[in-house]
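Hi, here's the filled form for the chain we discussed.

Project: internal
Contact: R.S.
Residues: 140
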Amino acid sequence: MTRIGIVDAISALHPTAQFTTNNGQVEEWHSSEITQPTEQEIEVKLAELKYQEEVNVYQEKRKLEYPDWGDQLDQIYHSGIDAWKADIKIIKDKYPKQTMDATELQKRKDAAIFNLQKRHYEKAVARLAQYELSAGVKDE
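And the returned structure, exactly as it came back:
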């Protein structure tokens, strides 16, 4: 599987947008005519893209098991289309076509939003703890 990141998510949301990133964050947004997506929109799109990639894994597995085209055509010529179909069906049955489940997709999107909110909360708590320590408030 490939590593899906912020660039993939933004490109999926706004294919013509021009931007630069640094450490997984948008550093500069160069497309004034396009509204920059929010962190939440990006996280939701990332969850969707990652799920879609998981669903599509069956394609790569099938592809690796199919004989090359020349061998397939040779089999059709010598054994007939029904024999070829039977051999291909074995591979298709071994790696059935997957589809995205709407409930699972929504669950993943909700989890992405929750995790984003949790990261923001943890960051805020850490900042608050530093502020209290610098103000001389005793930690109890």
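Let me know if anything looks off before we file it.
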